[in-house]
Amino acid sequence: MVLAQLGGSISRAIQQMSNATIIDEKVLNECLNEITRALLQADVQFKLVREMQTNIKKIVNLDDLAAGHNKRRIIQQAIFNELCKILDPGKPSFTPKKGKPSVIMFVGLQGSGKTTTCTKYAYYHQKKGWKPALVCADTFRAGAFDQLKQNATKAKIPFYGSYTESDPVRIAVEGVETFKKENCDLIIVDTSGRHKQEAALFEEMRQVSEATNPDLVIFVMDSSIGQAAFDQAQAFKQSVSVGAVIVTKMDGHAKGGGALSAVAATKSPVIFIGTGEHMDEFEVFDVKPFVSRLLG
Ligand code: GDP
User: Has the ipTM of the complex gone over 0.90?
Assistant: First the structure.
C-alpha cells in the first residue's frame, strides 16, 4: 500500500466514525480497527500498531467525543501524534561538522540501495561545501568497486578501493587513513551487503566498525521490504551501533510502514529518504511533513 492509499484509508475510517450519530466505544473500536488494517497493509509492524491502538484509546476520551467536540480533529490529532512518536526516537543522530573529519559507515543488505545512497549522501554534502570521500569496503560483490568508482567519478568525489585486496577491513582502514590525510571532512565507508542476513555479514560489519571507529553508522533500508523491516534493522543494530536510518526507493510503490519499524528497532531517526535512482533524488527526512502526507 503506497502512502497516499494509507492516508485515504485512515481518512475514510475517521470520516465514517464522525458520520455516526452516537460515538460509543463500538464505533471508536471499529474506526481504530480500520486504521489498524490500513497501517498493517502499509507494513507497519504488528506490535507497533497494537501499541498505537492502545495509546489512542487512552488519549481519546469518549465523553469529549460525545460532547460534540470536533471528533474528526481529536482522533486525527491523536493518530498524528502517535505516528510522530514512533518516528521520533527522542535523540537526534550524530551530526558531522564541516571541516572536522567524520567517518560515516553505511550498512544494509545487498540491493537495498547502499552504494547509490553513499554517493547521494556525499553529493548532498559536497553541494553544501563539504569535502566528502568514498571508500569501497565491499570486497564480496564483484563489480562493487566499479559501481562506486563510476558514481564517484560522475559526482567528482574522491574514492578509494581495490580490485585485488580481499580484506574489507584493510581497505576500510587504508581508505579512512588516506582521506584523513587529505583533510576530507566526510569519509564515507560503503560496506558489503550479501543477499541475506547471515552471520558472516554481521561479523564483517563488526570488524569494519571496530577498525574504522565510525562517528556514525547509517542503516540503509529498501522501503519495499515490508514486514521484514523490523527484524532486519534489529539484526544490524545488534552487530554495529546503528545511529541513523536512510530509507530508499520511496518513489514508485514505496511503503511507508517500514520506516516506522526501522526507527523502532534501531532507536535511531530516519535522516534522509531516497526518491529515485539519480544522485539528487534524495531528501532530508522530517517527521511531521512525512506523517501529514501519510495521513493524507
Ligand atoms: P546496494 O547493493 O545496496 O549497494 O544497492 P545499489 O546502490 O546498487 O542499488 C540497487 C538498485 O536500486 C539500483 O538499481 C539503484 O539504482 C536502485 N536505487 C537505489 N536507491 C533508489 C531509490 O531511492 N529509488 C529508486 N527507484 N531506485 C533506487
Answer: yes
Tens of pLDDT, residue by residue over 121-174, are 999 999 999 999 999 999 888 899 999 999 999 999 999 999 999 999 999 999
Give yes or no for a contact between 215 and 104, defined as CB atoms under 8 angstroms apart. Answer: yes
Pocket test for ligand 1, best of 2, 109, 116 (most atoms within 8 A of CB): 116
Asked if residue 112 lies in contact with residue 233, where contact means CB atoms within 8 angstroms, the answer is no
Q: List, in sequence order, the alpha helices (H) in the chain.
A: 3-19, 25-41, 46-59, 62-66, 71-87, 114-127, 144-155, 168-181, 199-212, 229-239, 257-266, 287-295
C-alpha 218 to ligand 1 mean position (Å): 16
Report whether 130 contacts 186 (CB < 8 A): yes
Distance CA 44, CA 46 (A): 6
The pTM (predicted TM-score) of the whole model is 0.91
